[in-house]
Design goal:
The chain has about 400 residues and is of the alpha/beta class. It has helices at about 35-50, 75-85, 95-105, 120-125, 125-135, 170-185, 205-210, 225-230, 245-255, 300-310, 330-345, 355-360, 375-385, 390-395, and strands at about 15, 50-55, 90, 110-115, 140, 165-170, 190-195, 215-220, 235, 260, 265-270, 280-285, 285, 290-295, 315, 350, 370. It binds adenosine monophosphate.
Length: about 400
């Protein structure tokens, strides 16, 4: 892998695509700076080795040019503190001012460019726009795993202007290493745990995982499509009727391959989608009309915990229930705890996808699993076996 470990950055202008797409509140204060923290190691290494660092990122989804709430200037204070230097800023990511500030930048200094998506050439992957960005530097580093599945100007197209000087930063390198550790070199037994609302977004992952895992655990809203596919009664639970056949095919594939496909035997049902709803435990395949399953039940928790605690490799994506509501969070918390326990016993555990990451953070378990992925969509596509444009562009 072309990483920053063996490259002479002395006297070089180094353009890094980072993922600074952080949440801001209405006063433009950062509410979660995980992504900024993740990027620090790469930046500091290059500064220490004599490179001048130019940072570029997107923030949010601006529609048509400049929008105050999406300006990267809101990140300057936080970033300057973390890097222990005064970070400079260019009001536009291309154009005269950016060029002038980039040219004047000295070894060890840092320049942050304004939001790339204020130009629609970014998401369109326009070559002319990428060329202008490329003109600011001698070396290009992609360290934005969260957008590696997009063929945007700054994440993929730009790489062609640096045929011999394009590298992966530590964020991407670590993500790839961790995912490969699970998908390619994972010790057995390998257990994948999938949850969340919908089967539709995850069916390709299920198919790809079935070729690799020993155990597949399915919880969350997506369980009911499988339970209905087996002939169960799911009441008013979330079901994707158009995917019943797909679910049946996945169940048969698992059987053919000898993969243990675990579905919840019991579930916490509620009379409405509300934390204050009346709720009770029921068998997952005997849910009466008017009731919906919102979490996995206690018997299921126990069974899943046993499988997880006896695993050597674990991949988790998606909550087991509506964990945002306290009354339906237990399944997700208990599964997170079982993953922590397995990790303490020596298993390698990878947690990815927005909601499972939110769940481990909420229960302060993020440092007790082996790796928490920073890129939801990108991680899922990588696991599906797809080629990510941002990764391919550096490797080519
Ligand atoms: P996803 O984006 O597909 O990973 O889905 C995450 C969402 O699934 C979370 O907001 C959960 O509240 C929701 N979810 C989990 N279990 C259920 C369930 N049994 N019924 C409805 N929604 C659920």
């Amino acid at each position: 892998m072309k990483t920053i470990d063996n490259y002479d950055f002395r006297g070089k202008k180094v353009l890094i695509r980072v993922d600074f797409n952080v949440p801001l509140n209405e006063n433009f204060v950062i509410t979660d700076d995980t992504r900024i923290r993740a990027a620090i190691a790469t930046i500091q290494k290059i500064r220490k080795e004599g490179g001048a660092v130019i940072l570029m990122s997107h923030l949010g989804r601006p529609k048509n040019g400049y929008e105050e709430k999406y300006s990267l200037k809101h990140l300057l204070k936080n970033l300057s503190e973390k890097l222990n230097t005064r970070v400079r800023f260019a009001d536009d990511c291309i154009g005269k001012q950016a060029k002038k500030k980039a040219t004047a930048l000295k070894s060890g200094e840092v320049l942050l460019l304004e939001n790339l998506r204020f130009h629609n050439g970014e998401t369109k992957g326009e070559e002319a726009f990428a060329k202008k960005l490329a003109g600011l530097a001698d070396v290009y580093i992609n360290d934005a795993f969260g957008t590696a599945h997009r063929a945007h100007a700054s994440t993929a197209v730009i790489a062609k202007f640096f045929p011999h000087n394009k590298l992966f930063g530590y964020v991407i390198a670590n993500e790839i290493k961790s995912i490969n550790k699970v998908m390619k070199e994972g010790e057995k037994p390998f257990t994948a745990i999938l949850g969340g609302a919908k089967v539709s977004g995850k069916i390709e992952i299920i198919n790809n995982l079935l070729d690799k895992v020993d155990n597949l655990i399915v919880g969350g809203g997506m369980m009911f499509t499988f339970i209905k596919a087996q002939g169960g009664k799911v009441g008013n639970s979330l079901v994707e009727n158009e995917l019943i056949e797909t679910a049946q095919a996945a169940l048969s594939k698992a059987e053919k391959l000898g993969v243990n496909f675990y579905l919840p035997s019991d579930t916490v049902i509620a009379d409405k989608f509300d934390n204050a709803a009346i709720h009770k435990i029921a068998k997952s395949d005997e849910i009466s009309d008017g009731w919906m399953g919102l979490d996995i039940g206690p018997e299921t928790v126990k069974n899943f915990q046993t499988v997880i605690e006896n695993s050597a490799t674990i991949l988790w994506n998606g909550p087991m229930g509506v964990f945002e509501m306290d009354n339906f969070a237990n399944g997700t918390v208990e599964i997170a705890k079982a993953i922590v326990k397995a990790t303490e016993k020596g298993a390698f555990s990878l947690v990815g996808g927005g909601d499972s990451v939110a769940a481990v953070n909420k229960y302060h378990l993020q440092y007790k699993v082996s790796y928490v992925s920073t890129g939801g969509g990108a991680m899922l596509e990588y696991i599906e076996g797809k080629t990510l444009p941002g990764i391919a562009a550096i490797e080519e």
